[in-house]
Description:
Distance between the termini: 6 Å
Oligomer: single chain
Number of strands: 0
Order of helices and strands: HH
Largest sheet: none
Radius of gyration: 14 Å
Amino acid sequence: xTLKLIGGTLAAVGFFxxxxxxxxxxxxxxxxxxxxxxxxxxxxxxxxxxxVTGIVIYMKGD
Length: 62
């Protein structure tokens, strides 16, 4: 039960990392606040790794 809770939480946090990184694009209206391409890819990679780790932990949970 505990591993499923931890895994599910990590998967949700990873999803929000990815959604937040993609939401930083503002169609050119706020370029001074937008993320650069490398920073965007970094945060998407962190989110994807967190999500995959959470899913693996969730699947291994009892």
